[in-house]
Amino acid sequence: MVDAYSGIRKIHQALVDGEVTSQDLASSAISRVDQHDHEIRAFIHIERGSTDHPSEPSLGTGLLAGIPYALKDNMCFEGIETTCASKILKGYIPPYSATAAQRLQLAGGVMIGKVNMDEFAMGSSTENSAFYPTRNPWDTAFVPGGSSGGSAAAVAAGYVPYALGSDTGGSIRQPAAFCGVVGLKPTYGLVSRYGLVAFASSLDQIGPITHSVEDAAIVLQAIAGHDERDSTSVPVEVPDYLASLTGNIKGLRVGVAKEYFSPDIDAGVRESVLKAIDQLKQLGATVTEVSLPHTQYALAAYYLIAPAEASSNLARYDGVRYGFRAKDAENLLDLYKKTRSEGFGKEVKRRILIGTYALSSGYYDAYYKRAQQVRTLIRRDFEQAFMSVDVIVSPTTPTTAFRLGEKVSDPLTMYLNDICTIPINLAGLPAISVPCGLVDGMPVGLQLIGRMFDEPTLLRAAHAYEKAAGFAPMRPAMDQGVATL
Known about the structure:
CATH class: Alpha Beta
CATH architecture: Alpha-Beta Complex
CATH topology: Amidase signature (AS) enzymes
């Protein structure tokens, strides 16, 4: 018998053997959401028609055929409301689907609903949603991370075997770490961003959140590849990611970035990650220290570049063409002001203001241009480090999940949650977070970082560690009453 924790390959085999049908899987997933999501609040929308999915013979033979998944609500799906968890997009129904969602459809995947997020992907806790905060399935007094908190919570709670998230500064990896699941941010340009509502166009990337590294490889195989509709999509050959999961990392050169083990890292998190590094050594990897000296400037650079791009991207939400429109506007300018004031949440407004200021006349060179120069230095740090190592390891987050409301009134403290993940987005590199233990009952994530488009090596290292450590799949400590089919 299978459940959402069984893994994609095992669920696929159960479908092939006739133990379950795709309708069974979709119905079970939705039933589980109905039973438990009043507490976790991972979903914004449930697609109940997904239980009417075609029978197995018409799905093809791919590993994802007939298997349900969840989609972060900043990815368009034709005919289904896409809100980015913002009031300003309420009622917007896209006439097309994101390329990543289209490719999952072609693979036979069954989308059962859209999941919650920080508004326009701006946040690290999923408390910035215009609808409601999502809670961590391990302990509902804690956040699931963000901005893909709904995706991570939906997987961790056993609603679905996998979900898609987006990662601009850590928004796949950080919630994956907080919820005890696997989160993969692919190389920038490997997965099409067409149909992903833009936050920061030079940083955003779609990726999978799953229960295992193997499942992440399976989903990546389906969504990766060039898309002519996305000008940032890179025409590279997509390798067989599953073939890279050999379990053998003897001779693999692992770099430990000393800057990622600052005093800001919680002692329990540090201990768990150092144990994981020892495990890699036992598997035959060679471990050396590397330096990424410009890491200390990454947070400041990111919080100029990302808000600047957000300021530009979010200028289109004006109440004229789609989404929310304020009432009783006296003229066009008043309509713009009222719509944006009423439609955007506090954190989105904060970042628009920061970004607009950074791009304004007289400040562009001092802020945005200089931040881009720092970004180049950060990328060069990684290039230098990868001359002597194959992957770099670090904590995914400086702490485990924090309590709801604990940091919401202190934006700077909230931003520090992404201190280990942001440099990777600035450099455009692939990275994955895998569970590496528990601290006080809450999951810890190990981050592995790879060279551009070297997902095979990254996945091979993560998979070998995962199998040796034995943490995945992790089931939340809270009793969710997981039902098998």
